[in-house]
Design brief:
Number of helices: 5
Radius of gyration: 22 Å
Bound molecules: flavin-adenine dinucleotide
CATH architecture of the largest domain: Up-down Bundle
Number of domains: 2
Strand content: 15-25%
Helix content: 40-55%
CATH class of the largest domain: Mainly Alpha
CATH topology of the largest domain: Butyryl-CoA Dehydrogenase, subunit A, domain 3
Order of helices and strands: EEEEEEEHEEHHHH
CATH superfamily of the largest domain: Butyryl-CoA Dehydrogenase, subunit A, domain 3
Shape: elongated
């Protein structure tokens, strides 16, 4: 999705795409892209449109598969479009409405982060608890250390709050209410909790946690994306502040 540097010029039966886009998930293997492109040079929101772009048409190129610190089981690509002709019927909705459509899509994408956060955080906490039950230091299992137990329950309590916020959002959605603020809050909090949990769990593994072969090390690296991808935490904060009227 998304290509603010990409232009799509209307030629009647088709649009001509030019430009590039980087950080595209599954970009090396996608059969089609949902692409936001500039259809006019006018300033403002109405100069963008959304397209379905099949990747088997001439002019589509994958310039690079990017090397990432985490999320390595999914590829991320840099793409470019070189006089690529796509049929006009591939325009989604109306020309000039793409930015608004994209903002709506973001709500679904960001909402998906909430359950992803509390499920994966609880999984890594469970693995860590199993490990510190078994790991004996100076005659006692690490789980007997109150400071570690308190840290674990603090995280579990925060994750429970995030889960309940998720259910609250579902109820609001079912009542057709605007959930932009609540989803932004959940994404903001989710990215923060997951980074803290995976960092803290890695700490409980000690030196072993620092080894790339350990699932906790992978969880730590993967978690870092959540505060960046789909809108950085600071952007979530801006959205919330706007809804709060300051
Ligand atoms: C692995 C991966 C996969 C991705 N997949 C996709 C994809 O499939 N499709 C797609 O469209 N995009 C994708 N992205 C892009 C992703 O959505 C963006 O990287 C993300 O939204 C941040 O934008 P940016 O990188 O342009 O950072 P910038 O906008 O340059 O921001 C950099 C930093 O500046 C700070 N900042 C930004 N705005 C503000 C603000 N308003 N106030 C204060 N501080 C601010 C934040 O700390 C932010 O992290 C992917 C990125 C990664 C890393």
């Amino acid at each position: 999705m998304a290509a603010l540097k990409t232009t799509a010029r209307n030629q009647g039966d088709y649009y001509v795409l030019n430009g590039s886009k980087t950080y595209i998930t599954n970009g090396t293997q996608a059969d089609f892209l949902t692409l936001l492109a500039r259809t006019s040079d006018d300033p403002g929101y109405h100069s963008f449109s959304l397209f379905v772009v099949p990747t088997n048409l001439p002019g589509f190129h994958v310039s690079k598969k990017l090397d990432k610190m985490g999320m390595r089981s999914s590829d991320t690509a840099e793409l470019y479009f070189d006089d690529m002709k796509i049929p006009s019927e591939n325009l989604i909705g109306k020309e000039g409405e793409g930015f608004i459509q994209q903002m709506k899509q973001f709500q679904h994408e960001r909402f998906a982060v909430l359950p992803l956060t509390y499920v994966s955080a609880r999984d890594i906490i469970k693995e860590t608890v199993d490990y510190i039950k078994a790991r004996v230091v100076f005659g006692k299992p690490l789980i007997k250390k109150q400071v570690l137990r308190h840290r674990l329950v603090q995280w579990l309590s925060e994750l429970e709050c995030l889960q309940q916020l998720t259910y609250h959002i579902v109820r609001m959605k079912m009542a057709s209410q605007d959930v932009t603020k609540e989803i932004s809050m959940g994404k903001l909090i989710g990215g923060d909790i997951l980074s803290r949990v995976t960092d803290g769990c890695l700490q409980m593994y000690g030196g072993m946690g620092f080894m790339n072969e350990m699932p906790v090390s992978r969880a730590y690296r993967d978690a870092r994306l959540l505060s960046i991808g789909g809108g950085a935490s600071e952007v979530m904060s801006d959205v919330i502040a706007k809804y709060e009227g300051f």
